[in-house]
Amino acid sequence: MFDFSRENKSLVASWFRNIDKTILFLILLLFLLGIFFSFSSTSSVVGDKLNKESYFFLKKHTIFVFLGFLIIFFISLSEQKFIKKYFPLLFIFSFLFLLLIPFIGTEIKGSKRWLDLFFLPRFQPIELVKPFFIIICAKIISLETEYNIYKKYFLSFIILSSILFLLVLQPDLGQSVLLFSSWLIMIYVSGFNLVFLIIFLIICLFCLFFIIFLFPYKFGYIVLRLKSFIDPAQGDNYQSEKALEAIISGGFTGRGLGEGILKDLVPEAHTDYIIAVISEEYGALLVLLLIIMFLLLSYKVLYKLQNERDEYIKLVLVGLVSLLLIQTFIHVGVNIRLFPTTGMTLPFLSYGGSSIIGISIISGLILNFTKHKPNLNNNL
Questions:
Q1: What is the pTM of this model?
Q2: With CB atoms counted within 10 Å of each terminal CB, which end of the chain scores lower, N or C?
């Protein structure tokens, strides 16, 4: 029925032959598991609280995953020259959406992170900005010109600072840390002096603390979260405490499908606390297996870099993998109270249209840049 032999010269057949099957399998499996866990974490009680039908979130999640598959296929099928030339323009469009947040953004629970435009469903622009930010930074840093190398780093930092400024206004500390960390890793991999990088990081941390205490009315929430994290008696830790209790009650094997209670107690269980829901119902062993899948996916991507000569592709893949791993680390860390609450979804598995579309773009780019190159005699 499907002919993917070398005699078939069609675009789709060529795509399937050259795509990394292991990476493709892991991405699709994680997305499908996300649909299943969406079913587990969006109970009828959650639907009743938000005046929605029982399977509203599951249906919506499935639609976004299907749309995500189309995005993955289109991006992974595209020519790399096309991506390098035109995707930086998509960064400009996504950044413009982010720029609208302070003016017409929708505020939910004290944070203004969403846009609710009449021609689009409500979405979170930063999820679209992240992959395109990696693309444009990689392009700037890898420019093969006489352009002063430190000027290239400075230009990428200006772009990063513009995004961070808008995120701080929302406020969104979690995404700020994620983007800044991914940018630092890209800079380090590109060959930036490690000593200078450490000095720069120290200066940035000093400036951050200075700004927090200089403008307590704007950034006091950071101090409150840190205080409540260190001393739970000083703040509202209801959600994080319930998440940790759920993980402990799940044990190694879990309480069973549908037997968890966290999804009925915490409104954001299907987004910010999905790993706690999974652990409660299916056990820590399944959570460990999921973490191994994330690590295996990252390893397979980074393994490709050892024979990659294109600096641009190296930086893109390092940046994208950094986004995946750091976001996963933050999400799990918040759920086990290793970090203060940040409101960070888990890639592939958490409910949320913006998150799914963003991770689909990342997945498409990863599949594109890890494809086997028939003209190169390597054994990837």
A1: 0.90
A2: N
